[in-house]
Structures
1.
Amino acid sequence: MTFAVVENWVEPPLRRFVDDARVLIALVLHPSGQVLAQSGFTRAVDVMSACALAAAIHASAGELGKMLEGRAFGGLHHAGRERQIFLAPVLTPRSTFLVLAVFDRESSLGLVQLYFNELSSGIAAAAPLPVEQAPVLANDFERELNRNLAALFGRA
Amino acid sequence: MSLVNYATREITCKIVYYGPGRSGKTTNLHYIYGQVPDDRKGKMVSLATQTDRTLFFDFLPLDLGNISGFTTKFQLYTVPGQVYYQTTRKLVLQGADGVVFVADSQARQLDENIESMQDLHANLAEHGIDARTVPLVIQYNKQDLPRELILSVDELDDALNFRGVPAFPADALHGPGVFETLRSVSELVLKRLSAGATAGAR
């Protein structure tokens, strides 16, 4: 199983969730579409697309829920012919995060929901508070940026 | 909200192309998509209507390669420009690290440009983002149209660019100005990150 984390503290609870709930793909992301951890994807760019779409589904379903019920929906489930998706928010003191899980007949919605609750608790307990960002890039990063962009656009 | 992973040395940034309807936001992404090699981009996702008007957003993930020892990835989004998609624009703008405002250079579109710029500021404010400090680049698109139909860069600057941010004339359909715009906003976003603002560290 391919596993990658941007935020290390997400890894233990997500690994447990993937194993216990027997999901094919799992993503933990910020509602803005930024990925924190993923399991099941092989290409980073595919992860970004999945995150963008998951964030969009969550945002639009939330607004729809507010229109219909006066509050955002708590989660979303869609059953396809072969695969199903489950998307729900996790509230932590640091931020709200989203979890997207894709599963097939090896699992079930009930099982995913059961272990999602454990995952939520694990993420809420592990999420650190935001920290002040230290300077990241070297002072001359523009040279490398320009070189890479020129290469991307075939201008190198 | 840039994501920086010190362990794997990765940076991910979100850039949103904003502007009035039919100003050329999606065209910018299409041009970039057409230029970038397959192994450096993801699939371009377009949530559009049957007539190809953007309904929710367009999305293009790009791998910029190694910058200062960090694998740097950009997520390019567009918003739907039509006035009645206000809620959607606000949602897509969430967590943006930088904004490209794509203005339509046609003289008859000036009011729409101004209204969209005001809408951008209002939505940034609703997200708690100071519009005066967010990395912003303006692109004056459709500068290839006949002179009598469009405003000059100076005229557009007077109407839209009161912050004096970098601004580029462009013809997004054929490419001029697209690269320069992306390079400029990338630089502003990474400069801000380099200065240590707003990102989440791991």
Note: The helical segments of chain B are 25-35, 86-93, 110-126, 153-160, 178-194.
2.
Amino acid sequence: MSPRAACRLERLGFTQVYDFVSGKLAWLAMGWPRAGTAAAVPNAGEIARRGTPTCALDDRVADVAATVVEAGRDVCIVVSPQGIVQGRLRGRALAETPEATAEQAMELGPTTIRPSERLEPLVERMRRRGVGSIVVSDLKGRLVGILYREDAERAPEAARR
Amino acid sequence: MPQAIDIDEIRPLLTDGAQLIEVLPPEEFEEEHLPGAINIPLKQLTEQATASLDKARPVIVYCWDYQ
């Protein structure tokens, strides 16, 4: 639809016409600001907890574990040099393999969701599968934050108050 | 010829003052749109509907995705 609209605008005399081909879907999947009635209800990206520790693939697990404790968190996301999510370190992997590298110990390719994910169906899926938290990444695979089910369960109600 | 742009290019253009048009139906626009966008559905893209826009400034048009 937008290519046709772009051609139409040129026909109407506009001289610098750009067609944002990946559209609203891509914008929302980046977790960027949005407007409209739906914006009153938070989505996954808006309630994901920021400031999750990250580490590089070659970092030692012992060092990562210390960073996680210092940050008061329970998880570290392993990212590539470009900041792309590669894995997750938590629980036993953090405690039991101090000499391993993050890459060796990490849970490879954790499930991620986009910031634009709506909360109610997401919470339903998380409950059904017994998932307490999930990684939120943007369209390019970069970490946005961690969404905790307890936060998501509270959020829609809070928005309606 | 309109120029196709992707996610990396849209924000600099907006910062530089590009105008933004969503061409989806009004109900979809009302529900969720990009901040600063105006809604002119494709079927209503006429001289009159675009009269308030500046033809000398860049204009970005978008819909939902690669439709």
Note: The radius of gyration of chain A is 20 Å.
